[in-house]
Sequence to fold (348 residues):
Amino acid sequence: MFSASHLRKAVMVGIGVVALLALTPAGADAQGNLTLYCSPQIEWCQLVVAEFEKATGIKVAMTRKSSGESFAQIKAEASNPKGDVWWGGTGDPHLQAAEEGLTMEYQSPRLAELQEWAVNQAKASKYRTVGIYAGALGFGYNTELLAKKKLPDLKCWKDLVSPGLKGEVQVADPNSSGTSYTMLATMVQMFGEPDGFEYLKKLHKNVNQYTKSGSAPIKAAAQGETTVGIVFMHDAVTMAVRGSPIKIVAPCEGTGYEVGSMSIIKGARNLDAAKKFYDWALTAEAQSLGAKAQAYQVPSNKNAVTPPQAPKLAEIKLINYDFAKYGSSAERKRLLEKWGKEVKSLPQ
Fold:
């Protein structure tokens, strides 16, 4: 039996433990946790989480949102960050996040293993982001639907404004989708701003829906819900590999491309775990996982295995995309506002 003195001692010890817990910072018990904001397709996000947890024992809470949505969430949470790492999605919003001080500088020891375009992304952001994959913009079309409409093969951007495709083209909204913002910036760079916006106005007449997610249009085309989906070409490859009647097109006039990026969120509660994930995600082994999730981007680690189905960037007519300019906060805001006023507001 406990004596009175034993009971008093136990009570005092209990009070001491409670006081110690009260003084412990909220994040101190989270050294083995990571909160990940993930922007590529959900299958790839889930595979990356599973493999990282297996490799490190760190538990990951993952949220999948498109690039624009992830950026908006990180900006909204700036005064009280909830996430630790933003992985994937187009590089433009990552660069804007870096410019606005929403992400933090980190130079991984893996930088020497990366392709030049990935390191250039890091340098442009003062090492607040880094390139993890690349992918070219293009479109895919449902060959069966095109044949039913007795339309010729589609080979160029100009083909998508044909009257025969009225209501048959789907593309994402550039406010929520990094894919679609890349398209907006591509048209401005490739044709000049006046002609680029004229093209987008003509295209608007053929658009049946502006989706939230950048990959949604090609999924709709694969399911026969629309004839054409404007997407990154690797997303169209995924649908074709799964057996859908999708033809992938690198537009004849040329096209833009993305440097999918990764950033550590400023104020990350689990900074050590964030750096471990960052370094791990740049390894050849981690980047070679993409093909298992039917993700056909070109990895940034020189030693990673590029899926044979991945679009051959060297064979595509790529424009000299100005990531610094079109990833800047002012230019993104200006173009998005102009697109809203001059394109999306038009009747169809």
